[in-house]
Amino acid sequence: MARGKLRIYLGAAPGVGKTYAMLSEAHRRVERGTDCVVAFVEHHGRARTEVLLHGLEQVPRRELTHRGAVFAEMDVDAVLARRPRVALVDELAHTNVPGSRNAKRWQDVQELLAAGIDVVSTVNIQHLESLGDVVESITGVRQRETVPDEIVRRADQIELVDMSPEALRRRMAHGNVYQPDRIDAALSNYFRPGNLTALRELALLWVADRVDEYLQRYRADHQVSRIWGSRERIVVGLTGGPEGRTLIRRAVRLAEKGAGGEVLAVYIARSDGLTSASPKELAVQRTLVEDLGGTFHHVVGDDIPAALLAFARGVNATQIVLGSSRRTGWQYVFGPGVGATVARESGPDLDVHIVTHEEAAKGRGLPVARGARLGRDRTVWGWLVGLVAPALLTVVLNALDLGFANNVLLYLTLVVAAALLGGLLPALASAALGSLLLNFFFTHPEHRFLISDPRNIVAIVIFVAVAVSVASVVDLAARRTHQAARLRAESEILSFLAGNVLRGETSLEAVLERVRETFGMESAALLERADDLQPWTCVGRAGEGPPLDRPEDADVDMPVGGQMALALTGRVLPAEDRRVLAAFAAQAVVVLDRRRLKAEADQARALAEGNRIRTALLAAVSHDLRTPLAGIKAAVSSLRSDDVAWSEEDQAELLAGIEEGADRLDHLVGNLLDMSRLQTGTVAPTIRPTDLDEVVPVALGGVPEDSVRLDVPETLPMVAVDAGLLERSVANVVENAVKYSPDGSPVLVSASAIADRVELRVVDRGPGVPEEARDRIFEPFQRHGDVPRGNGVGLGLAVARGFAEAMGGTLNAEDTPGGGLTMVLTLRAAGDRPVPVPPEPAESAPVPPVPAERRTPW
């Protein structure tokens, strides 16, 4: 069965019209006779979107009960049974209610695609998993519902639904996106012009990258070698000299002039050792280009101009930046140079910039070499000199009478010339031909292959020996030069690789990409298995190639130990390249081991933090537990004493002291247990829609009535929280605010709705907290300022933030205008669906609420 096709409407923010565009497309398909159904579409009360649902068949939703509430989700089984040609599935990143067929909606979509059903869906840019941190830094909101980037990348079609920030804000102001009571808060927070502009740019750039991937795949599939200037890509050719920094900066300035320009710096390690590249200088240039937003590439090529042009055309570059030649005038006798050759052979679709620099015309570090091996042209000339020149020399010597000794020297000269030009084989051929010609034309008897004079025999033997010796020495020197140059090129590559690996700057995927790029392969993968009987698994790969289940299926298989192997596809490597490949494979294993060790170190760090918390706990509670216990014991002993007759007022005072000490102990132990559960991750909140105006007043029971001013509108949307945990968080925060507020300045507790969240603000007019100490006050066992012991162990705010985060919210501190501190508790609005929560551990029960009056300030 053919897999269905996925089409995604991608938007920068809610309200740009993704669902509207999807429904409009559905109507167009229905008019063309396509079997199209609505599997799940949420109109969010938008009248124009709801109208488009009319006339489309809708698959009934499946109702699920979760924690006493009923929710409607997409019925995957019903859609599969209906088997439409096209299914509309809104909100790809949505998290399903616990008990659904799959945890995430994109997993439901994968099932529909596997069944051969085409799917049209929607998603916002902020829901892509890789962009979570970026979106949070822009909007201040962390997206909890995400979809893996790979799911969206593999879509057959991605259509951007774009709208300017001004138009979107006008649409919101007209009530076409949110309900009227949420418009003002949304416009002043999440939907600020700056936020929308940044999200829009993020969406445009992400789609542009995907379009570029499709273009590269199309060019590769159709073998398009001609450059298409759809996007400015600037390749910088580096030699390892100090002028490289100037070239990189110049290329970056060129890229900045065009939208979306890229800079790719490439160093081609020529195997004949033409340049004296400094590994240290190349490392500096690599850091520079990466800091400026470009990428660095290191490849091996015998012909530098050809390799540079092949690389530029392979990445669809539009410009090449090279430096002026460092050659002096006399060095041009060896050739026009790399810059002139590249400019001549670049063609009309590739611009070449020659940039002047301070090192121009100052000479090269090494003389120009003549090739790694002797080269094709020299080999041809060697054969011509070795075979044709002796025949021509014979004609000349027959006309002249120079004597046998001079004739031998002249033929020997030709053999040496053939050896210098063509190497061993042309020289041997020349020696053999020369000896035959000497014997036939210049030894007695002439014109016969006989030698009558023994002295001529000795001369010819010496001639052949000298010719063979010279040819062997020349060939050996050429081979040794090639080997030395190749080893130097290999050492440069390996020094770069080892340096990056040791500094921890290279990921496993980056190492594999470097392997693929260096050897010109299609893909590279690192495979691993537990033992000889277990199947191979891929722990990392780079490039686009066939999936590898066994190293034997690859074109190149490099074992690493007994249970790992580096597999490459694309071509068969020569044996001399496998030495470098083995070093790459070993480095890849080192990177993988370091990544695993880092994960283990993070686990060990978490355990160490737990031990530190426990140690601090023992040190902190020693005094705070004894003080109320001592007061309780003294009061009880006094009441039980027969020596004193206590009045009713005295007895009431002693009983009140006992009750106060017991409350302090109860609250202290409760906070310690809460902190312990937060540290061990066993807090399992019971999330359900809750009204803030029902919870917040209860949380204020532990503070004086005139110390707090409450402003929580009844029209606020419900929040998805655990009522008990929310009450305890609010109570701890409010009690701290009351404690540090001056007399006569009540604490303000207000709430407002902003987009899909609700903010509860606790505002005091106290001394405030310096900015550098705001994060510290949320850490366990921390007291700000000169708070005396006995006022708590510093767990109040730590517990409040821990409970807030356990419910999917946040708790932060900020300045109060005019002086003081404002605590901002951000919670998610319940909406029409519950917020999914992790399942409760079997061994732990939900944390019961504690009376509001039992709170300890930080």
TrEMBL record:
Region (Disordered): 831-858
GO molecular function: ATP binding
Pfam annotation, one family: DUF4118
Regions that span the bilayer: 380-400, 409-437, 457-478
Residue intervals of the Histidine kinase domain: 620-831
Regions of compositional bias (Pro residues) in chain numbering: 835-851
UniProt keywords, alphabetically: ATP-binding, Kinase, Membrane, Nucleotide-binding, Phosphoprotein, Transferase, Transmembrane, Transmembrane helix, Two-component regulatory system
InterPro entries membership: HATPase_C_sf (IPR036890), HATPase_dom (IPR003594), His_kinase_dom (IPR005467), HisK_dim/P_dom (IPR003661), HisK_dim/P_sf (IPR036097), Histidine_kinase_KdpD (IPR052023), KdpD_sf (IPR038318), KdpD_TM (IPR025201)
Catalytic activity: ATP + protein L-histidine = ADP + protein N-phospho-L-histidine
Keyword ATP-binding: yes
PANTHER family: SENSOR PROTEIN KDPD
Record-given protein name: histidine kinase
